[in-house]
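Students often ask why we bother encoding 3D structure as a string. The short answer is that it lets us treat folding as translation between two languages. Here is a chain of 298 residues written in the first language.
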Amino acid sequence: MSDLLPQELRILVAVAEARGFSAAAAVLGLTQSAVSHSVRGSEAKLGAVLFERGRSGASPTPAGERAVGHARRILRLYEVMGAEARGAGRDGGRGGGRDALGGVVRIAAFRSAALHLLPPALERLTARHPGIRPEVRVVREIGAGAAGEVAAGRADLGIATLGGSQDTPPPGLLTGVLSQEEYRLVHPAGHPDPRSLPLMDWDENCGSYTRAWWRAQEWIPRATVKAEDDAMVLTMVGRGLGMAIMPELSLREATEAVEITGLGPQGPVRQVGYVTTAEAASMLTIRALIRELRSERG
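And here it is in the second language, the structure alphabet:
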């Protein structure tokens, strides 16, 4: 099998993102026939159909999703190779470019992690390496979540929940625990019997390991009130509309309108960690970012 050339990789990514050959051609400044010819050549080299063609455009097949993810990650390595080589040149080779790190660092994180875990780490990182430019994408921790963004090559590092059977990252990704958080009961301040209130929840809350704990608690009502995210849950609890069970990161935004009660030594916990790829973990910028994230728990 022949290797795909960088231009062929760029075309695969463009077709996937534009959802069509003509649209990709316009983005790349190529003809539609050149894009189509390149994709057919890539499919022949890989021995798999990468796109479903139709009147509405082109959508990646499962094989295409994997190929496009690899393509993004390979193209990203080309970018990093140049940035690190230039940094090492400016540094005179004394620190392997560590003192002259620069370039874009792409991060995906769920909302409360993006609000509370990332800012102090990024503040220290950019203070030490002013040439680094963080790009943070907030993603919902549902389905593929932040780990899926890394697997798809759209992020170099993700901040995700770890440890539950539904939170297992895709194959080939590396993970590391950054913190372990307790869940707590949050309820309207001064309420005489908060456990009598309706349970408020949101789709991202909890992994399967926490859901199992919930099911074992007879006092938790079956009926729930759904909200869009944890911030909305806190607001609604503060308005007296219900109670909730929330992790510590989400509770950093709590106001005096709510009270927070522990759930005891057998209460649920979750692990929050980073997800990356082997090749991204070798990047100097990502290694520096992981060091800063880990220093948060120290």
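Translate back mentally: The chain has a mean pLDDT of 88. Keep this in mind for the problem set.
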